[in-house]
Structures are given as structure tokens and as C-alpha cells.
Amino acid sequence: xxxxLGSQLFVGRLSCYTTNQKLEKLFSPxxxxxxxxxxxxxxxxxxxxxxxxxxxxxxQAQKALKAMNGRLNESNYKC
Length: 79
Prior knowledge:
Blueprint: E1 2-5, E2 8-11, H1 20-27, E3 33-40, E4 47-55, H2 58-68
């Protein structure tokens, strides 16, 4: 699941095995990824299952949203 916020996407339903690097690699085919950031639990430092991907432009974010929204891949499986 992804929701567009300008040039930033909210990405949900991610696996606990997802890393910032894997998230960036997953979205990089759609444009220049300025930042890929998972939200971590402050106590355990494990990913909470969602994060944000920021693109260089809104058009790149829109392209990624169209392609990835609802798509299942190995990073979507919960732990």
C-alpha cells in the first residue's frame, strides 16, 4: 500500500525484514529516491511495518504510486 504526499510516499504493510536499502531499491526504478526511511519502534529499534519514500519530483512519486499500489512482493510478508 502506498499513499502519495507530494513527492513523498507513505508505504505500509512492510515486512520486519525490510531495510532502508531494500525499500530504496524497490522504488528506485521509478525515479531518483532522495530518501527511503522505515519507522522504527523506539524501544526495540525494529521496523514498525511502514515507512516513507521521497522522490526528486512529484511526477516520479505518482509513477511509483501507480505501479506499486497494492502490489505484493517479498517485502510485503509480515513476520
